[in-house]
Specification:
Elements (H helix, E strand, L loop, with lengths): L1 H21 L10 E4 L1 H7 L1 H38 L5 H55 L3 E4 L13 H12 L17 H9 L1
Parallel strand pairs: 1-2
Helix pairs in contact: 2-3, 2-5, 3-4, 4-5, 4-6
């Protein structure tokens, strides 16, 4: 009896395995229009997360630098104020003017760094979307879609035509963190021959 049960269990397991193997992987919905959430693509993909961490680290570095500069300038200003009583007016004014010029110059430099970081943030998002284009194009071809629209620009749509989750999975599998070789993180992985050919054409 025990052997019979074991045989039946094995037979059922084998049959289930055959059935499972026969079930195809989930396909992209067939639709002439697809939607995607670009912010989620960036924020939830390994590639986008790495870029975000780099931007945040650069921002933290600028903030720390600003605090150090502020502390140094405050100390310098205090020292200058303490010298005022012992210096001729003309000499003190010369030192005060030089200090003001120094403060303005440093402020311009730090503001420029902030603007450069903001521009870099836009650049990395654009670079990410460019790197993700072959994956998105692949999804469009599978769906027979002619248009891929940012979901937040759509008034009403069915969830089935949103390919954000699938795109994130494929971007992670295809690109990893998008890091260059030798950085200690995942380097981009090779995708399908069609996608690779499309990338080479660009």
């Amino acid at each position: 009896m025990i052997r019979l049960k074991s045989f039946k269990a094995a037979a059922l397991a084998a049959a289930f395995g055959v059935l499972a193997a026969a079930v195809p992987a989930q396909e992209v919905v067939k639709s002439p229009i697809l939607t995607v959430e670009a912010d989620r693509l960036f924020n939830e993909s390994l590639y986008g997360q790495r870029l975000t961490e780099e931007i945040e680290a650069a921002g933290s570095e600028i903030s720390a630098e600003n605090r150090q500069i502020e502390a140094a300038l405050t100390a310098e200003e205090k020292s200058l104020t303490e010298q005022r009583a012992n210096l001729p007016t003309a000499e003190f004014r010369k030192l005060a003017d030089a200090f003001d010029e120094k403060v303005q110059s440093i402020r311009q430099e730090q503001d420029a760094k902030g603007r450069a970081l903001a521009a870099r943030t836009e650049d990395v998002r654009r670079d990410f979307l460019e790197a993700a284009q072959p994956v998105l194009g692949e999804l469009m071809r599978e769906a027979g879609a002619a248009v891929l629209i940012e979901r937040r620009n759509v008034f009403l749509s069915a969830d089935a035509i949103d390919v954000t989750d699938e795109a994130i999975e494929r971007i992670n599998a295809r690109l990893g963190t998008g890091a260059a070789e030798g950085t200690g993180t995942n380097e981009p992985q090779t995708g399908t021959p069609e996608a690779d050919a499309e990338t080479d054409d660009r």
